[in-house]
Amino acid sequence: MDNMIKITFVSADGNHIEVDGEVGRTLMEIAIDNMIPEIEGQCGGGCACATCHCYPRQKWADKLRPMDAMEELTLDSGLAEIRPTSRLACQIDLNEDMSGMVVDL
Predict the structure, then answer these.
(1) Is the distance from CB of 51 to CB of 28 less than 8 angstroms?
(2) Does residue 30 sit in helix, strand or coil?
């Protein structure tokens, strides 16, 4: 289990769900594996639907690779509010430095 990190998802009503995430997988895959209801991933991780829109806390958002044009376009076409830390969970590849990440939904 040394390839596992802790991720905490925080729902809009303030419910905290702590899960284990495997390094090398995406945040969306971990959310779906753990049945996080706010993350749908309808396109299967193809950066096409924005149903995995999430808000990593600033501390963690600063550690993510920069958003590319496709992710930005997909976020803009979604229904959720765009915030400074808005990201698509399918575009967040988990690594060891993300252990403890907190993600608002």
Answers:
(1) no
(2) helix
Instruction: Kindly give the pairing relationship between strand 53-56 and strand 101-104.
Output: antiparallel
Helix (H, G, I), strand (E, B) or coil at 75: helix
The residue count for the chain: 105
Residue 84 structure tokens: 């400074």
Nearest Cα neighbor of 105 from 46, 28, 44, 48 is 28
Joined tokens for residue 101: 């990440």
Cα–Cα dist 55/8, whole Å: 12
Tens of pLDDT along 42-66? Answer: 999 999 999 999 999 999 999 999 9
